[in-house]
Specification:
The complex is a heterodimer of chains A (about 110) and B (about 120). The mean pLDDT of chain A is about 95. Chain A is built from no helices and eleven strands. By secondary structure, chain A is an all-beta fold. Chain B has strands spanning about 5, 10-15, 20-25, 30-35, 45-50, 55, 65-70, 75-80, 85-95, 105, 110-115. Chain B has about 120 residues and is an all-beta fold. In chain B, a hairpin with a 6-residue loop joins β5 and β6. The model of chain B has no long low-confidence stretch (mean pLDDT about 95). Classes of the chains: A mainly beta (about 110), B mainly beta (about 120). The interface of A and B includes residues 32, 34, 93, 101 and 104 of A.
């Protein structure tokens, strides 16, 4: 069964620190891997989209990496801010579907002052 | 710049009641989607519409119907609500007709639905 697993489930860091969120997937083959940010009470917002041939993609202080050999992706947040407090969701699109996205259950990040 | 707008934001229903969740996008997108988000689980696709006039079932379509009224609007209907349908419902849209491209999905802020 295709799955997307994220770790840790939750994380607390101090403002200004860096952190890395992990995503392991078994979806294969896939066309792209996405990271979304979801603030409490809001819909997900796209951070990065990487094709299977890309290794890294940045969006400001957010950098996503992809290792297709080990089926792992990570999202690195640099110099965290209070506004980074949110859930971060890893999403994989399997190649065998033109519409389906497989969502991880997310990592809940809390940035404290 | 509204993006994807969902109404209502909150709703409480009794078992057996019906209701329609509304979704509209102003980005001239081709594809629209309905998801549900339950605690501890990833978003799951209920129905999608790759273009105006077409709709297809997703992963969890039972108990729901949809209507792509025009290119802007995509509604989700619960004919006879059940407690298992208590969830947060998200509508999304994307420019392309498939998800093979690198076009992101844009989400609304959800409808929080409780069924007693």
């Amino acid at each position: 069964k295709n799955q997307v697993e994220q770790s840790p489930q939750s994380l607390i860091i101090l403002e200004g620190k860096n952190c890395t969120l992990q995503c392991n997937y078994t979806v294969s083959p896939f066309s792209n891997l996405r990271w979304y940010k979801q603030d409490t009470g809001r819909g997900p917002v796209s951070l990065t989209i990487m094709t299977f041939s890309e290794n890294t993609k940045s969006n400001g202080r957010y950098t996503a990496t992809l290792d297709a050999d080990t089926k792992q992706s990570s999202l690195h947040i640099t110099a965290s801010q209070l506004s980074d407090s949110a859930s971060y969701i890893c999403v994989v699109s399997p190649m065998d579907s033109s519409y389906k996205l497989i969502f991880g259950s997310g990592t809940r990040l809390l940035v404290r002052p | 710049n509204a993006g994807v707008t969902q109404t209502p934001k909150f709703q409480v229903l009794k078992t057996g009641q019906s209701m329609t969740l509304q979704c509209a996008q102003d980005m001239n997108h081709n594809s629209m989607y309905w998801y549900r988000q339950d605690p501890g689980m990833g978003l799951r696709l209920i129905y999608y519409s790759a273009s105006e006039g077409t709709t297809d079932k997703g992963e969890v379509p039972n108990g729901y119907n949809v209507s792509r009224l025009n290119k802007r609007e995509f509604s989700l209907r619960l004919e006879s609500a059940a407690p298992s349908q208590t969830s947060v419902y998200f509508c999304a849209s994307s420019a392309d007709r498939t998800i093979y491209s690198n076009q992101p999905q844009h989400f609304g802020d959800g409808t929080r639905l409780s069924i007693l």
